[in-house]
Amino acid sequence: MPHFASLYNLAFWLTQDRATAEDLVQETYVKALKGFPSYHQGTNFRAWMYRILRNTFLTTQAGLKAAVSLDSDDVRVVEPATDQTPEVFFLTRVEQETIRRTLEKLPMHFREIILLCDLEEMNYKEVGLALSIPIGTVMSRLFRARKAMRLLLAAASQGAKA
Amino acid sequence: MSCELWRDWIDAYLDDGCTPEESAGIEDHLNTCTACAAEALARLRLKNATRIAAADRFVPAPDLRLRIEQSIQNPRNPISAIPFVAFPRFKFPVLTKQWKQGLAGAAAALVLVVIVGSVWWSRSAGRQQALAQLLDMHVATLASSNPVDVASTDQHTVKPWFEGKLPYTFNLPVLDGTPFKLVGGKLMYYRNRPGAQLLFDLRKHQISVFILQDQPGLTPKSLGVATERQRGFNEETWSQAGLRYIVIGDTSAADVRALGDLLRAAGRQ
Ligand SMILES: [Zn+2]
């Protein structure tokens, strides 16, 4: 089974729950095998798999709930009151745990697009395929997602110092 | 174009979402603007940190793979008849209607093998391409009137010059008592990532050493030292502590190897 461990990792990041992630991976493989004739060679296989996984998740109760935030693109965070940019925080020391917690705090559509781009290293076209959105939307959503992440990280580094 | 506007391009540049012309424009700016170069470095660090923090964060239960394979093999499941490559206990299917339905899937399983194979092939082809591009950079450096940004034979001058310009550090060898001389170094960009290019002299021959963050396309399957010869230049590449080293020079393969040995020893310190 290709990409088994990385698909499971993504499923867990998406669902934030072990049992849901396990069911989701199982169903994804079943659907992928059934749908394989519709797979176009040359397109990114992981993007295609993720698309199945995601579409399956969005038909479940938990998925519907997670996707509610899809329309509201703002993340409520307190803007740091200092002129210290989050970048300075990274130049000093990157705390893995902080990044993980920050990713978990992000709305699902922000978290997944950052993971597809930075973890799975998909290009914009592949991310667009995985999420069924045009490239322009990929870029604007990614822009907002990263901004939200930097704000959350800046808030976290401020909280850690306070 | 103002820095404000360049900042909007940095993410796309680091994500490899720019055309070659756009990338060249950004690199020109990054080479002259310290503020934007620092911003790009910070964003690259966050990208890398995200990858490291998120990768293998959640590991599947040991039996999950088996459970899924068994559920796919369940006789009530029509796709169980697919001779999928991952099933070691494959029984030759009887030609039933069910199996005929699965035939498309059987072809799919074969395609799957082809895909996995072609990814691997394109990666090693990509490596050849990577070496060819770096050789071009080496040749361009030799032709340049300013081959290095920091000119010094002292590694204690050259190494600190890269601090704050790269998201990693590296060690340089002590060259006393060897025929090699350090000429200097410069910041270069390869595949939208900042890297170090160091220039060494050996009896009037110039050798470039590129030290880059390792990337899948650059990495041969085996981690050993790979030696190549291209257009009259000898090259050696290896991976060490997450860094990819590429040594290119118009010297003999033995000389390239000797400099490589010095660098590998320094990298272990
Ligand atoms: Zn600038």
Quickly list its features.
heterodimer; A: 162 residues; mainly alpha; Butyryl-CoA Dehydrogenase, subunit A, domain 3; 9 helices; B: 269 residues; alpha+beta; Phosphorylase Kinase, domain 1; 2 domains; seven-stranded antiparallel β-sheet; 7 helices; 46% helix; 19% strand; binds zinc ion
How are the secondary structure elements laid out?
The complex is a heterodimer of chains A (162) and B (269).
Chain A: H1 4-15, H2 18-35, H3 45-57, H4 61-67, H5 86-92, H6 96-105, H7 108-119, H8 124-131, H9 135-161
Chain B: H1 3-14, H2 20-32, H3 34-54, H4 64-73, H5 97-143, E1 150-151, H6 155-161, E2 180-190, E3 193-202, E4 205-213, E5 226-230, E6 233-240, E7 243-249, H7 253-267
Antiparallel strand pairs in B: 1-2, 2-3, 3-4, 4-7, 5-6, 6-7
The structure holds zinc ion.
What does this structure look like?
The complex is a heterodimer of chains A (162) and B (269). Chain A is mainly alpha-helical and 162 residues long. Chain A has a single domain, classed as PhyR, sigma-like (SL) domain (Butyryl-CoA Dehydrogenase, subunit A, domain 3, Up-down Bundle). Chain A contains nine helices and no strands. In chain A, helix 3 packs parallel to helix 8. Chain A starts with a helix and ends with a helix. About 10% of the residues of chain A have low confidence. Chain B is built from seven helices and seven strands. In chain B, strands 1-2-3-4-7-6-5 form a seven-stranded antiparallel β-sheet, with helices on both faces. By secondary structure, chain B is of the alpha+beta class. In chain B, helix 1 packs across helix 2, helix 1 runs parallel beside helix 3 and helix 2 crosses helix 3. The chains are: A mainly alpha (162), B alpha+beta (269). Chains A and B meet through helix 1, helix 2, helix 5, helix 6 and helix 7 of A and helix 3, helix 4 and helix 5 of B. The complex binds zinc ion (ZN).
